[in-house]
Design a protein that fits this description.
Length: 125
């Protein structure tokens, strides 16, 4: 089955338990339609770059799934209809990365990679 990564933002006035119950709700929607959630993460309340529906902050959640396209479409349809979900993003990936997402890693643990392969940086110096 195809692999997907989903991020959704829910309203800021929800409690943490309600925001995490949304993750469980949408996980069961996928399971009912033949998919499964490989991993989920609750990122907490974060400030957004701009207001969405008069909200400055939102509860962020992240799902790694292994599901058929029909299950993903049904989950997205239900997310769009849900009053508490403000934004969704779904990306199809070739493989899931191991370990926690970059958002959950501490700043000093993140691998920034070798930046020496950027010739335009060396020319400006």
């Amino acid at each position: 089955m195809p692999l997907y990564e989903h991020v959704f933002i829910s309203r800021q006035d929800l409690s943490n338990a309600q925001a995490e119950s949304l993750i469980e709700h949408f996980s069961t929607v996928l399971a009912d339609n033949g998919g499964k959630v490989v991993e989920n993460e609750y990122w907490g309340v974060k400030t957004m770059a701009y207001k969405i529906n008069k909200n400055r902050k939102g509860h962020y959640a992240y799902l790694r799934t292994d599901a058929p396209a029909a299950a993903v479409l049904e989950m997205e349809r239900l997310m769009r209809l849900h009053d508490d979900v403000m934004r969704i993003l779904t990306i199809k990936v070739d493989a899931h990365e191991e370990g926690p997402s970059v958002q959950m890693q501490k700043r000093d643990e993140r691998d920034r990679g070798d930046r020496g392969d950027r010739p335009e940086r060396r020319e400006r110096r």
